[in-house]
Every structure is written in C-alpha cells, then in structure tokens.
User: Fold Transcriptional regulator, AsnC family from Methylophaga aminisulfidivorans MP.
Amino acid sequence: MSEQLDKYDVMILQKLQTDGRITNQELAEAIKLSPSPCLRRVKQMEEKGLIDGYVALLNAKKLGLTLMAFIGISMDKHTPERFEALESTLAGCPEVLECHLITGQSADYLLKVIVKDMDAYQQFLLNKLTRIEGVTGVHTSFVMKSPIKTTALPVS
Assistant:
C-alpha cells in the first residue's frame, strides 16, 4: 500500500497523526498544497481505509487510571471456539486497551490493561479474567515507566 502514497499523502498522514483536529485549511498550508486537493486526498484515504477514524487521546493519570500492566494469558485448548469466547469476553472489559494473540511465549494472549490501582487490578483479575472459561495461567508485568509512548505509525 505504501507504494501508492506520494509525498503529499505521507505528509497528510503524518500531520493528522499528531493533530487530528487540524482544519483542512491549516493542513493544506502545512503541507504546501491548496485546500481543495488536500481535502480530496484526505477523503480518498478515508475511503480506502488508510484512515480508520479520529479520536481524542485522554490523560489516564488525570482520570485516575494510574496502573498499567501487560498480562500474558495461557489457554487450556487452542481451538477457534475457545479463542473466540475469550476475545468476546475481553472485548466487553473497558480495562483492556489491547489484546493480542501471540506466539513465541508461554502465553497465548498478551493484554495491555489500565486500572485505577492495585485494588482495581485485583478485582479485574479475580472477578473477570480468571473466571473466563479456558484461562489456565495469568502472568502480569506492571509498567513502571513509559519513556516512549506514541500512537503514530511510521508512515513513509
């Protein structure tokens, strides 16, 4: 897909990743393109699915969400039904920011979760996660510091 992007498309995607609220006029000025073709390019990339959507990035600490963890989950059976059931249940848990089916580790899934504190983590673990049918192991690593944190993809 990247071979179909020219320098203006790349600049648009880079700019939108750092400021999704930028006006079309400001975007056009920033990439040195007139507003009409700039807007047309944005719309085309939205239609092609290169731009999935626009969101507000919230400040977790100011919302009282101070404990982030990565959780490895091991499953008893490696069947599509078991995986679908787990994924469906986790999709309903607001604490889960990301869920990845992985390989190369003892875990089958890697979750990124965020909660208020250790008590909230314990409630999540005991009342939700370990109650999911098929979960046989849980290994948690707590985040102490996040020196690099971005949502921007390396577009070129």
